[in-house]
Amino acid sequence: MAASVCKQKCYYCECINGKPCAESWVESCSVFINSTVDITCQLHESYGEANSSHLYFVREDNKLENDNLIVIDQSTTVLQHVVTTDDIRKNFWCKTRTNTSLILGKVELLYIDYYPQEIVNFACIWEGMAAGALQCFWEHPVEYRHPNFINVSLEWKTSSNKPYKNICPKIFENTKCENMTGNVHGPSSFFRINVTNKRMEVTTTTEIQGDFIGDLYGKPYKMENFTVRERYKTAIELTWDKNDRDLEFTIQYTTNRTNTVKTFNTSVLIEDLQTYTFYTFEMVAHYTDIFTHTRPIGLSSDSVYLKARTAQDVAKFAPKVTMGAIEFAEDDRSKVRNITVYWQNFKEMEENGPIVKFEVNLESTGDKLISHQFNSTNASHHTFTNIQSGQSGSIRIKAGTNVGMSAASSPIYINKGDYKPPHFVLEKLNRDILMSWETENTEGVKGYTIYWCERTNGCEKQLKWAHVSADAKSYTVQNLDFEKIYLFGLSMDSDNKSTGFSWENCYFIRNEIPQRPTSVTVQDRNKQSISVVWARPRPCERSPFVEFYILYWCQADEKGTECLLGTNSSTRINSSIIKVDMQYTIRNLKSGTRYVVWLMAVSSAGKQSLEGEKNYNVTTMDSLQSEPKMKSIETDKLYALFIDMHTENYF
Questions:
Q1: Which of 191, 238, 250, 279 could join 208 via S-S bond, C-beta 3.0 to 4.6 A?
Q2: 580-600 pLDDT, tens digit each
Q3: Which domain, by its residues, includes 440?
């Protein structure tokens, strides 16, 4: 064993009377990555169960290549191993193939790092024409594991005939040298950078030779007061202060591609831009060569940035409209109505500038134009009050920037007050609302428009709408948030004509079971028929919509408490979206007979209620009783009143 080697005590290698069976060592425990080390294992002379040909090495129980094993003698074997980063903080164990569970000896490489490397990406900065100092930068091609043992020095000179005398006063983070003073304006430059591993006492030197320092490393100061001189609709004029001589300026900005403008002046007009659009401008400066002042040399200055917007123009688009987006509130007594028109705003409206006002124009047939202009950034409806119900016409909307108004929207037509919107019902199903409707007169109808928005009375947020064909009878508004309150409306639309709509916010609950109907009420009777009435649930009662009822009746027994066997009858009676009050006449009954009448409700989802309360007090008239003449009596009264009124007027 050599006199100066590195070995460590192994506390778990006892195999003979508490002593190791072998010793392991290396020449040095401080090594470089990619270097080759000799790891030696020597058996103790008293261990006779193996010889050196049985020895091999592992690293922390992981497989280790043993291709380069050298048997020295009967007791000694050497492994020639190339050091890698995998060896860091790992033990090398010596073992024998005669007893693989036994560790004979161990050694650890305590210090592993890279050999000092030549530096890369060397560059310097000579900032400002009047600069008297250099700043130089470089990088290391590897990341040293123990930077505290790495020392870097930089020397430089301006002539090959002179020795290196100028030494960087301080190195920062082993990658930067500042305040290098001397003749930085010389025609040549020579640099020497030394990287030293202090622990291992080895040094690697990188020598760099360059030409005129200004050509290589001249860097202007960044420009100041970079600002906008003038804004136009499609152009921006930029200006800045020049702080040095012989400079060329480069401005870059992005449209649908990156654009570059170069100039020797301290202002430039950037053209072919979009109206009212933000652009980010980046500017750098270069020195130019001292002979022609046209070729950029050295390094570019630090960038300066400016975010600027082109000027506004008149509003580009009018709001979106649809012909039926009108709500009517009519007073039948005074024959006037309030008309609320709705529209949709969209992002592209502000391409030429922010919307700050709206103009709504109502043009009635045979009347003067009514124009209302008001300031707002997001208005989506407007109301005209006290408009004659018999008038028709149209409404158009404009949006405006600070520069001017857009063109008018397409017209929204107003019709006379006798053209009414269709009746509809709303049913809640999970997060959706199903709207169904009935129409009595569909002649000339081209389609329907469904409207919805958030709020209890009028739209707080922008109105939404959807169009369906003339043969549609329902529409589903999906994915609503029922923590909020919604309004719904429906218009029937023709060519240049629409009913407008009225708001509704009550809805039925589709998947619930209908409540048990209450008892029917007898409205009229005669000897062979009985007319009964009842009311279906209303939407605000939070019940399902009853699509139809099954009306049951039977002849009562002698006690009047049960049905007489074999007398049960029933019929289906469809509900109406339009009418809440229900009525039916049971015919072909026996005179002077008591009947039992009751209901069952069936929802639009097909769910049945329990049988309703039974009315046991339904009796037809006796054959000896005279038929009621309520209708003829009422007719006689009205006729007499009519004669009296006209006779009085005549005389």
A1: 191
A2: 889 999 999 999 999 999 999
A3: 423-505
